[in-house]
């Protein structure tokens, strides 16, 4: 793996998120409508179709009430990874929440993730919120830093 650059509790590396070490939690941002249709979410859907169904069912059952929470799917397909779905927007596309709403939901979802995760599990994510949700990465990274959440970020 290339040498990381540290920024407080966030470590930046170049590479593929899905190559994270066994035992890691793979973190990504989701909508509450049950669609992993584009961006990194589409890659999760292709790689983890059974886990997509867990996410989709959760969204059908709870809908917008999921905003600001985290669905932690454990023991994924013998990959050695868990998946953390941060519910940061109610919708997607043109109906996605505003950047301010997404950042507020991100703060709450990260706190929920930290409350659920096992201490020995490292968090690995992409620059979530910055793709299809169009929130500047620096804004999301600031939330991670303020919460003092340790995370490796892949670019």
From TrEMBL:
Originating organism: Schizophyllum amplum
Domain of life the protein comes from: Eukaryota
Protein name in UniProt: ADP-ribose 1''-phosphate phosphatase
GO biological process, alphabetically ordered: peptidyl-glutamate ADP-deribosylation
Family membership: Belongs to the POA1 family.
Catalyzed reaction equations: ADP-alpha-D-ribose 1''-phosphate + H2O = ADP-D-ribose + phosphate
Boundaries of every Macro domain copy: 1-155
Stored SUPFAM superfamilies: Macro domain-like (SSF52949)
Entries under Pfam families matching the protein: Macro
EC numbers for this chain: 3.1.3.84
């Amino acid at each position: 793996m290339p040498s990381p650059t540290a920024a407080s509790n966030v470590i930046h590396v170049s590479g593929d998120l899905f190559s994270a070490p066994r035992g890691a939690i793979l973190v990504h941002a989701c909508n509450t409508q049950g669609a992993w249709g584009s961006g990194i979410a589409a890659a999760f859907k292709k790689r983890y179709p059974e886990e997509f169904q867990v996410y989709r069912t959760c969204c059908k059952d709870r809908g917008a009430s999921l905003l600001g929470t985290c669905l932690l799917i454990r023991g994924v397909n013998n990959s050695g990874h868990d998946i953390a779905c941060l519910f940061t927007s109610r919708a997607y596309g043109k109906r996605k929440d505003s950047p301010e709403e997404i950042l507020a939901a991100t703060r709450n979802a990260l706190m929920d993730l930290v409350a659920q995760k096992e201490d020995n599990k490292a968090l690995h994510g992409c620059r979530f919120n910055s793709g299809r949700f169009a929130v500047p990465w620096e804004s999301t990274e600031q939330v991670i830093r303020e919460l003092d959440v340790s995370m490796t970020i892949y670019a």
